[in-house]
Amino acid sequence: MADGTGPGRVTPSGVALAALLLILIVASLWLFIAKPYWWTPVASQQGADIDFIFTAVLWVTGIAFVGVQGMLGYFIARYGAKGTERASYWHDNPKAEAILLIGTAAILTVLVFMGQRVWASVYFSDVPENALTIQVTGEQFAWNFHYAGPDGAFGRQRIELISPTNTIGLDRTDPAAKDDLLSINQMHMVANRPVRVRLRSKDVIHSFFLPNLRVKQDAVPGMGIEIWFTPNLAGDYEIACAELCGLGHYRMKAFLTVDASQDVFDTWLREQTAQQ
Ligand SMILES: [Cu+2]
Questions:
Q1: Is the distance from CB of 76 to CB of 18 less than 8 angstroms?
Q2: Least confident piece of the model among 68-77, 83-92, 131-140
Q3: Distances in Å between the alpha carbon of 244 and those of 47, 168, 174, 248?
Q4: N or C of the chain: less Cβ packing under 10 Å?
Q5: Could you tell me the pTM of the whole model?
Q6: How many other C-beta atoms are found inside a 10 Å radius of the C-beta of residue 81?
Q7: Tens of pLDDT along 160-196?
Q8: What is the distance in A from the centroid of ligand 1 to the CA of 185?
Q9: Distance 240 CA to ligand 1 centre (A)
Q10: 120 C-alpha to ligand 1 centroid (Å)
């Protein structure tokens, strides 16, 4: 065929493949432009920066993808039009390789620096003074949220006290534990007040995921991991576990409420504590 003696360059299977590719291109373009399955509106301060990086990476890789695939298509059409052309071969081309290497390195370096600025603002910045601290403990298959209560001090936890009703082993004889709240699968925080999450796991690796707030952090057994962020949009959201952590992983779902004011939050905390 390539020697020009075949049935010609346009074959039914080629046309079918081209049509299929065209449908794929139009469908994926539509997905990106109409955004029927896109991110939820961002609900945290840090989330806007993360979305910006994501968008930048998407543009860069999108342009590179279209450029590379377009050139490939063009070369095939341009140099294979008759089916009689011979491919030429050479071992290397230092100039082309240098341009590609330096160009790619420059783009990636810019992206890495943009990303590390956001990373540092999430992981290497000081937690603001007024932050609300919540101890989050993942287990198969639930999220435990431990609030210090009005005294601001977390009660002692003891492993031998862990039971089906006291899932984090809170020692109620400790004075600091008197006003503590243990909430299972229900998390509350206050809009525009920073939150410090102390993340732990009782069994396997889980991943604490607040998609609306663009927060995702692994919970690792034997480690206490801190992360902070500032929710800035009141509302009800979902919390997921983003680490395949066992057979019940799919139901490791919890609920987050970002209260509009400290008063609303305090009322919730008081009601919940009274119930316990
Ligand atoms: Cu999990």
A1: no
A2: 83-92
A3: 24, 22, 36, 9
A4: N
A5: 0.81
A6: 10
A7: 889 888 888 888 888 888 888 999 999 999 999 999 9
A8: 12
A9: 8
A10: 26
User: Which domain-ending residue is among 123, 154, 180?
Assistant: 123
For residue 100, the domain's CATH number is 1.10.287
Give the orientation angle of helix 94-123 with respect to helix 45-79, to 10 degrees: 160
Does any domain span residue 109? Answer: yes
* 252 Cα: distance to centroid of ligand 1 (angstroms): 6
Q: Which domain holds residue 148?
A: 132-275
Query: How far apart are the CA of 223 and the centre of ligand 1, in A?
Result: 15
C-alpha 171 – ligand 1 centre gap (Å): 25
Number of domains in the chain: 2
Query: Which residues are CB-contacts of 115 (< 8 A; sequence separation ≥ 6)?
Result: 53
Tokens of 132: 């609300």
Residue 206 alpha carbon to ligand 1 centre in Å? 4
Q: Following DSSP, what letter does each residue of 151-183 receive, concatenated?
A: T--PPPB-GGG--SSSTT-B-TTSGGGTT-EEE
* 137 shares its domain with 271: yes
How far is ligand 1, taken at its centre, from the CA of residue 219, in Å?
9
Percent of the chain past pLDDT 90, that is, above it, reads 66
Q: Tell me, in angstroms, the distance from the centre of ligand 1 to residue 270's CA.
A: 29
